[in-house]
Amino acid sequence: MANVMPLLFLCLVATALASGDTAKVCPENEVFVECKLATCWKTCQELKNRGPCPSIAAGCVDPGCVCISDYLRNDEGICVKYEECCEYSRSLVTFDLDT
User: Fold this and answer.
1) What is the reported pTM?
2) Distance from the CA of 35 to the CA of which of 54, 60, 63, 81 falls in 20 to 30 A?
3) Mind listing the pLDDT tens digit for each residue in 38-47?
4) CATH for 35
5) Residue 10 falls within a domain, yes or no?
6) Is 75 within 8 Å of 44 (Cβ atoms)?
């Protein structure tokens, strides 16, 4: 029985390490967050049809990968610079503040 305890301990440590970090690896231009709902405007489509940001309940547990700052998810699910959102970015209203 004493010989089994160190082996069991090693298995527990290996399992904890493997499950902790692999879930936090994200594709290029994405970052892992504990609450995906905390990110407002996430897709290119939202440039054209902006709804209100979702309300977030205390203790939000919806972990996952979201696009980094200035990037939005395109129709193929890839995070691109918001300027690359093509047809959606044409609907943006711009203002000339120099006049």
Assistant:
1) 0.59
2) 81
3) 777 789 988 8
4) 2.10.25.10
5) no
6) yes
